[in-house]
Amino acid sequence: MSETLRLSGVPLKAKPDVLPGGIGGGIGTDLKSGELDPVAGMSHFLSEMRRLLLLNGAVLAVIVFGLAGIAFMIRRKV
Asked: pTM higher than 0.90 for the full model?
């Protein structure tokens, strides 16, 4: 974007858009060896997905029991 603006005449400082070196062309970062382990990453992902599924199940159970309770109360009055 800045290259296009410079070509159109906007007075911007000349600097490269991408910094060389590092991972993926950006500035390098220090990675721990545990962060690169695919088995540990997949295990963490699966444990998080399990927690999410259990949370969704709990919310669904609360909604279903609430609707059943409301239906029961309405049926008793009618």
From this structure: no
Q: How many CB atoms are located within 10 Å of the residue 6 CB?
A: 13
Look up residue 46 and give its two tokens. Answer: 């699966």
Residue whose structure tokens are 């295990």: 43
Query: In this structure, what are the phi and psi dihedrals at residue 29, rounded to the nearest 5 degrees?
Result: -125, 150
Phi then psi dihedrals of residue 10, to 5 deg: -75, 130
Helix, strand, coil shares of the chain, percent, nearest 5, are: 70, 0, 30
**47-73 b/e with 16+ CB inside 10 Å = b?**
eeeeeeeeeeeeeeeeeeeeeeeeeee
Which tens digits make up the pLDDT trace of 13-72? 777 666 555 555 545 566 666 667 778 788 889 999 999 999 999 999 999 999 999 999
Sign of torsion, CA 20 26 30 31? Answer: negative
